Structure prediction request, 408 residues.
Amino acid sequence: MRIIVTGLVGQYAFGGVAWDYLQFVEGFRQLGHDVFYLEDTEMWPYDPIKNTISEDCSYNVSYLRGVMEKLGLADRWIYRSAPDASYHGHTEAEAKQICATADLYLNVSGCGWLRPEYLAIPRKAFLDSDPMFTQVALASGKQDVIDRIRAHDCHFTFAENIGAHDCRVPDAGFHWIPTRQPVVLDWWQSAPSQAASEGRASARPSSPLIGLAEARPSDYRDVFTTVMNWVSYKSCEYNGETWGQKDVEFLKFVDLPQKTAQKFEIAMGMGPGMKRPTEMLQQKGWQIIEPAEHLPDPWTYREYLRHSKGEWSVAKEGYVKSRSGWFSCRSACYLALGRPCVLQDTGWSNIYPTARGLFAFRTMDEALAGIDAINADYAAHSQAARALAAEMFDARKVLADLIAKATT
Prediction:
């Protein structure tokens, strides 16, 4: 089967964004399919070095090309630049021929622009990676959003709890099929010697990362970490309620470092408006580092996760309050590296096993209990984390299920 996977790897040419999309590409490839990554968003390129929108896509194309080459996907990508309609990776004629012979178009995050050649592909699947916010946009009557999503034949969502009695995500008139982030287990090994064969850059995060100077490459640092933005975009209104971002949830647990001897470090983006309360967070005991400086690409991002003891993280208020069941790609990657996770429960505890390598929390006491349990028997929880990733997130399993449901 020939499959087209959309994404935003070139548009957001930094950090771990590439993993969100390219694990679909590699997972399908491992299943024996003929797969191409397509980036055609109609958005002007964002240059993270200059921190501005630009008509020049050279940085984005160079970054995308480098990532694809390191992952063994050198001839498997197409990038269309919005400002001048130029094609990269393949010519326009080649790109259209590839699409003309495709069987499935997987529009991850809905970021793909729906040109006639894409709409002509026999099966078109939309994948909602931002549950509750997507459905609120639909339920609010935003016709452009409705039309774009309805143009697909089937609709998947990372709201794995959708339809459950405690889930408040509206269906907005669509039949949603739950799915999850695929993880290419070969790309997430705890031993760096195995990672070296995966095209990883040799650069490692630099100071002031806690304990990294003392850590050997195979070691983890005695610090729980996560990667996040303080705010990603504006909150939304639905049914008389506000559905917000991670800042809302983080503030509920802002005193966590003062209640345990465990150290915490957050690679935290400022977000729109640069409103991150850095000084307050540091006073509360959080070590804050800048993602753009320490995690500039997929390889340093992966090393950051690998050298962490585990992950502690909140989720967007919209995910939590709606009981969506959303589970982060980032967290799945921590687990695959054998790094246990203590995560705010969005309803995912209805789907995934907890208490061995993975802990759900709703309260401060539950967060502390998860951290204490991991610290009491780290080796066992590390092994359990990797085993859970293999059981629940293996890209071959996840994507075989997605294909079966997308093509029936």
The CA atoms of residues 78 and 89 lie 5 Å apart.
